[in-house]
Target: DNA polymerase III subunit delta
Amino acid sequence: MPTYIYWGDDDYLIERNINKLRDLVVHPNWQVFNFSSYQFGANNFSAALNELLTPPIGSGGRLVLLSNCGELKAIDDTKIEQLERTLLNLPDTNHLLLTSQSKLDNRLKFTKLISQYAQVKEFSLIPVWDTQKLTNRVKEAAYFLSLSISNEAVHLLAASVGNNTRLLFNESVSLKLERLLISWLILLY
Model:
């Protein structure tokens, strides 16, 4: 089933992975029609599920994002039944993505139902005292950006940005651009 739950307090990583999933599922020329985002709430919940059953327009698939799914207690049994019918009849081209700041409460009917169908990914901030994980995150960012940096630079970057993933990627991109600029200047002279 093409259903996903992204949860955690690292907003930047969640945002990056939403964009990655959108680019994977939805054709770039049809994003206006086939990508929808709703804030979680009783009224938006029904609208999102109705749109989820709508076939995609043009090429590619459809992605419906239901963000900030923190207050699941507001979902009554009729909406849970509507969700179950929707998930059972969900076309392979259509994808549902739910996001939450915190882990979903496993005691709720909603969570039990959605967990049967969804792929769950956690995106939590690394504790600032865990220097090994912070340096590993810097190395991952450098690898992702094809940026080679020394171990000393990795430790300095990890110490300066801490667990702020957005700042880490911004600084890494700045380093990469500086290197490109220096390379071009060397080639010119």
Notes: The beta strands are 3-7, 35-39, 62-67, 94-100, 118-122. The longest strand covers residues 94-100.
